[in-house]
Amino acid sequence: MTEIKIRNFKEISYDELEELNLAVKHEVLAGTPHDELKARFLKHLQEERQIKAVTVCFSDIEGRFHMLDYDKKHLLASHEGLTFDGSSIRGFSIQSESDLRLDLDWSSFRWLPSDVFGPGKVLLFAFVCDRDGSPYAGDFRGRLRGVEQQLAERGQASAAAFEIEGFLFKGINAEQSFDPNVGFEFVSEGGYFHSLPVTPLKAFIDHFAEAQRALGFENEKDHPEVAPSQFELNYAPAPAVIAADQVQLYKLLARQIATSMGFTASFLPKPRTAINGSGMHTNLSISSGERNLMFDPQGTEQLSSFAWSFVDNILQHALDLCLIMNPSVNAYRRLDPHYEAPNQVRVSAVDRSAMIRIPLGTPRSARIEIRSVAPDANPYLLLTALLSLGMQPTPPLDTQTRQRRDLVLPSHIQEALTSFEASTHMARILGEEPRTKYAALKRAAAQRSPHELGTRIKSGEVLFHHEVTNQYIWSRF
């Protein structure tokens, strides 16, 4: 009997998806007013009968990604008054003041690949607002937008590019079912050039790259990484908020595609000892009009004094920043110097053990690369802190201080917590209440995990990891 297709929801080819999503992205970069985009997309939703739902996304203070699917008709009628229960999100509001608002960011409108998200869906990011409509202090996407606006007032703009590494494990929900006596089972024991084109790891990377391209990432290259079953897909730089959004979509796509193949995509920084861990190298530059403010052909390593001031600020506040760059118990395993760990608080053009690297650059591509960032960092919080610190005036460091080897990042989360909680700079940049909430969440996870990491991955550092745990797992402790 011939199957009768009853549903009639929109499915768009990957080529058309890429064209549509790139067009929106480039309009935003060209400065199209938000109200103009809002009017156009509301009209599109009204007229396009084959769209059934709008996926609305936001991130909590730890960077955990949340999604709500709104029926299209309901969203059209209620888009100015969307609310959710903030007390159900760890680190957001308390139960007695739980209602929070969602302010849709129409510049983030994206058409979604139907084989990954289901047919007839589009996506929007949202800013989280308080009951009175004011920006919510714990929403670092909104805070990052504020930093971008401050840069714009100075005639400047940011560009960020992330190099996000992850691992592919056999089985679905491998993290939630982690057994320390067994460990994770990799889908491939090869890395870099030892993974053949038809292996499961490469098939995963190929599908992932196709979906990423369709969402307008502007892909550059993709490949297995050094460690077994490790992957990395690179794409073009973008302004800070868009770049942070793409981190969240990158991880979402990886997890969704892996699950569809019977695997788990994981962004634990170090899921197995004795191999290289995963990082999220963060490339940053600042421009003014068409001029890259980081470049000076006569400067040291062809960096400008402006860029060196940015570097010096990050180096001087490295210990304050460490908990933001490495937000989990497991992240401190990656800072092991035996596996190319960038744990030295210094800068170098060649040595990859340095916290900051100066890549070979041109007038257009000159940038700094912060290598000490784990892939489980909240990208909005990270960029808010880096840009806010980097842009403040600071006396220059001398070359010897910039290249010292005796100062290293913490080897465990408790030490990073102490520096973070004592930092007046973090309190000023983040706000006292968000800083306190963030630290409290990290301390709770640390207290449920072993203080000494040792040479064996422990259950606590996986099960109570902020990207793994849920209310059920947390309450079983």
Binned, the helix content reads: 25-40%
How many helical elements?
17
Biggest sheet descriptor: 9 strands, mixed
User: Separation of termini?
Assistant: 52 Å
Beta strands, count? 14
> What would you report as the Rg, rounded to the nearest angstrom?
22 Å
Which class do the helix and strand fractions yield? alpha+beta
Low-confidence stretches: none
Kindly state the mean pLDDT as a whole number? 92
Amount of beta strand: 15-25%
- What global shape is seen? globular
Keyphrases for this structure?
9-stranded mixed sheet, 477 residues, 5-stranded mixed sheet, alpha+beta, 14 strands
Give the arrangement of secondary structure elements.
Elements: H1 14-29, H2 34-47, E1 53-59, E2 65-71, H3 72-78, E3 82-85, E4 99-111, H4 114-117, E5 121-129, H5 140-153, E6 157-170, H6 200-214, E7 219-224, E8 230-235, H7 240-260, E9 263-266, E10 280-288, E11 291-292, H8 305-316, H9 318-325, H10 331-334, E12 344-348, E13 354-357, E14 368-370, H11 379-390, H12 399-402, H13 413-422, H14 424-430, H15 432-447, H16 459-463, H17 471-475
Offer a concise description of the structure.
With about 475 residues, this protein is α+β, with helices and mostly antiparallel strands.
Verbal overview:
The protein has 477 residues and is of the alpha+beta class. It is built from 17 helices and 14 strands. Strands 6, 7, 8, 9, 10, 11, 12, 13 and 14 form a nine-stranded mixed sheet that branches. A five-stranded mixed sheet has the order 2-1-5-4-3. The longest helix has 21 residues, at 240-260.
